[in-house]
Amino acid sequence: MLKKTAAEGVHAEGIVIGAIIDMSSRIGKEQRAAMEIAVEDFNGTGNQTLVLHIKDSQRDPVRAALAAMDLINNQQVQAILGPQTWEEVLSVSEISSQTQVPILSLADATPRWASERWPYLLQASPNKQEQMKAIAAVVQSGNWHQVTVIYEDTDSSFLYNSLRDVGVGVIKGVVLSTFSSTTALSEHLGKLKREQNRVFVVHLSLPLAVRLFEKANEMKMMGKDYVWIATSPVTSLVHSNASIISSSKQGIIGVKSCFPEGGHPFRKLRQRFEGGFSIENPKDDSNEPGIYAAEAYDAVWTLAVAVNGSNRVGQELLGKILQVDFNGLSGKVQFIKFINERAPADKFHIINITEKGYKELGFWSKGLGFSKTIHENSICSSCMTASEQALTPEAPRHNSRGWRIATSANPLRVGVPGKSGYREFVNVTYDHLGNSVSFSGFAIKVFNETIKRLPFDLPYEFIAFNNSSYDELVKQIYLKKYDAVVGDVVLLAKRYQYAEFTNPYTETGLMLIVPAVSGRREWSFITPFTKSMWVLIAVITVYNGFIIWLIERNHCPTLKGSMLHQIGIVLWLAFNTLFSLHGSYLQRYLVDVLRFKTQNIKNYSTLDAYAQAFKNKDITAVFLEVPLAKLFLAKYCHRFVSVGPTYKLGGFGFAFPRGSPLLPSIDEALLNVSESGTLLELEKRFITPAKCPEVEDENQSLSPDSFGTLFILTTGTSTISLAIYIFSRGISMVGYKITWRLVLAAMRYWVCQKQITRRFSNAEISVNFAPHAPGTQSLV
């Protein structure tokens, strides 16, 4: 039961403060020694007397709450320092707010919402969440796109968010606790070892982290292809434990709080600290103080400065604490109002922890990036390799891949469709025993060129998959039979449940292919014409219009009038007969496709099968992916054309396991293949032929021969109509004979010209296709 508020328990003799720490931990030991030194220093000023009461929570939230009640009710403290863990802070905060006793938390971080709920809770140590941005910068600098986070049962959302902000994905989070057994650690590490990812961010307390690293070292998970990154709970105590990892040449990258360790005030603290600490803690390996000691020292002085002069308590004391501003041992001591939090640190050491201790690699500064020093003129970079000279031969350099790497003995297993119907894309040859011996084709060559452009070696082998289902082929990645799939594999949403895909290496979409002509050439009316063809059309059109005018002029008043009016009528009649026709086949076809029925769909496995189906009139159109459509049109040239819109689909891509860290590097290499022009060269080599195998010229215009049948029908119909009209009008025999002879002469001339044209046309074909025999002329 709470008895007194802070205002009721003011000490006339001086300032009374309390502290709740875990005296069994290294952090608690450092905090206690530093606090006692701070009290001595303040009392040595002669202003007021500072009394410190310390309680041991043993890292137990219930003990922490009981300790707070005892300090407030019995010791009548004006403020409380600590505790270290967020769970303990939660148990104490409610008590402090009810009694109006400020709590200066020494935990690594305090959620922003906590100050609204408990206004007397302040974050006395710089918020360690800012270091998560430094962690994310290290990961980004190493070009590691996927990480696994191993953390204790604490809030790690800020770490996750910081990683995602720089485009790094968290494959999984592994939660451990102080009570995790050695067997549990082995099981967790065993699962991680079987995964491809090899980048681990460790956010654990030092004792648990040491156990983890020892077990990982036993399981040979501390080699050059593994990357371990440690946060402040580990790095802030590296000075106290010289053997965090028992044996590892690769080491651990760490982000460590940066404070003026070399300054005179801290050196003075170190001298006094080492003597007393070694006496009270003779079993500890090191007597040096670290960041936790510096922060505890500054927290005592924060309260002393706020209370000094008048014995302030409650709301008045809280306000004075928020106004504190001085340079402490741990850096600038200044609080952010409204969120009751000490200004976060903006600089961190980047260190390398090995079996021999640790070495500073450089610094990371918020808003500036990495640098070798933190002077005003320091050269900063967003990439950690700018500080590469600081690395020792044992340090983990940034060419560490961070995933299970393929070797010559254990290459990447790449599944390839063994029965692809499109050999231009994938062509697998077999020996007489049925074993695959070689792989070729456009998709294979593109993959080969992509691997060549990776910044690291990636041995691989192709394995033929003889099941015809491409869905099953992709599923083999999920079943861990293959590490990747290469071929004419379309990117489909349903396949993402088994794998992830690279960016498409072909154009995307679905095209509609139809025959270029419907029937014989004599009926192809929509192709561009030659000049003579256009002239002939005009003559025949006017001729037809003249006959219509001649026959109808006495029966229709509109066709009478002046000579100019009647000429206009003739031309109108002529061209009205030409453009009143409707060519609507494409529109009707598109409507039919949009309402396509299952029974009208036929499947074929090769391009030749499609062509044969067109020839047999089994199908009238075919849908193909853009790369296959281009191959089909290139192979059959002018016999088929693409019509209508291109329906967007995924295109062809390479498949990898979901979350594979290889994907970003493969995508980047694939872009290099495209930008260098190699992709275009391969496309010309495998898809677009050097010469069109068809005789026809794509740009050939239609001559009068193509419309012989049409012209005979139209002119014949008009001439018969004219003959009937002449007979019906009783024109004289002489006039009839003259007219008929003119018609016959015109028809004879037409037939003669047609025969001459055909002879020259045949002669030209013979010249183009005659074989070149030795000692003979090529002209036929």
Automatic annotation (TrEMBL):
One of its GO terms (molecular function) is ligand-gated monoatomic ion channel activity. InterPro entries: ANF_lig-bd_rcpt (IPR001828), GABAb_receptor_plant_PBP1 (IPR044440), Ionotropic_Glu_rcpt (IPR015683), Iontro_rcpt_C (IPR001320), Iontropic_Glu_rcpt_pln (IPR017103), Peripla_BP_I (IPR028082), Solute-binding_3/MltF_N (IPR001638). SMART domains: PBPe. The chain crosses the membrane at residues 533-551, 563-585, 707-727. The keyword Transit peptide does not apply. Disulfide bonds join C637-C692. It is a multi-pass membrane protein. One of its GO terms (cellular component) is membrane. CDD domains: GluR_Plant, PBP1_GABAb_receptor_plant. Residues 411-689 form the Ionotropic glutamate receptor C-terminal domain. SUPFAM superfamilies: Periplasmic binding protein-like I, Periplasmic binding protein-like II. It is found in: Membrane. Keywords: Disulfide bond, Glycoprotein, Ion channel, Ion transport, Ligand-gated ion channel, Membrane, Receptor, Signal, Transmembrane, Transmembrane helix, Transport. Pfam families: ANF_receptor (PF01094), SBP_bac_3 (PF00497). Glutamate-gated receptor that probably acts as non-selective cation channel. Belongs to the glutamate-gated ion channel (TC 1.A.10.1) family. This is Glutamate receptor.
